[in-house]
Amino acid sequence: MTRLRLLPAVLATALLLPTPAAARSTATTTGEHRLAVGSVHLWYRVAGKPGGTPVVFLHGGPGEGSQTFARYAGPALEARLRMVYLDQRGSGRSDRPKTADNYSIAQLVDDIEALRRRLGAPRIDLIGHSFGTILGLEYAARYPDRLAHLVLAGAVPDLPRAIDIQCARLQSSDPAAFARAAQGKTPGVYPRCDVFSAYDGDAMSAAIHRNMYPNAAIGRKVDAMDSANGLGNTGELGNALSSKGLWSYHFADAAKVSAPTLVIAGGRDFQAVEAPQRDLAKALPRGRFLLYPNDGHFMFVEEPQRFAKDVAAFLRQ
User: Fold this and answer.
1) Which of the residues 105, 130, 135, 248 could staple to 1 if both were Cys, CB 3.0 to 4.6 A apart?
2) How high is the pLDDT of residue 11?
3) Within a domain: residue 228?
């Protein structure tokens, strides 16, 4: 995950109204679709095995789009599951409003629920990656009866803790960079530094790449796919959420998550570090932890067949 309320009551009420049968009949057909939530149009694509519980993918970024996951993990998952790739508002092929009022975690969760209603599915499965795991957790806590299973890959349930662990690693590996990141911080403060101040410009981007990709070739693949066809991250979503406290995010509602949850972590992912993910799986009532010891932040690009096999087996339980 790189650096980076609610709608008016009348619209919130509208989201609770039943979706017309005619709209539901076309909403689940294979191919691309548009869903209007207020004035914002969301793009999603349905693919894969017909029937069964829809599996909605929630991408990271914030603002990445679903294209990389669909390209690398999609084929193996679609052979087993009915996949739905959603581009969040501010991302991919969905609308990218310029004003911050259009963005909040609560609104993004409402968008997922609007999609579920459009699909006409009593319950959905969710696969979240990186920032998308925040949305998956929040949806699971708010709508426990509408979620069948939850998969979290490269999860970030406690961003201050993840940042502090990154700072500790930086302190031992590059003391000069840590000194820059800790400048102005009171000793004993938590997290102990601002990792995004450790380097400037391209050097910061390179450091994030090293954290996420043990194999640099994987990073090049992800970057190329993220930016292909004009779908690159233009920052509207990430900037808006950052201004609203994203980097202080801590998920505190584990007891409300009743869905079976699989947490998949990369053992060499030093961005969404392992320890908070392992502890999240323990805290969830029906949590399970799975480590890919040699993978980084994009394990579904590094091992797509293994990822699809593990996820499909879990969702079929």
Assistant:
1) 130
2) 28
3) no
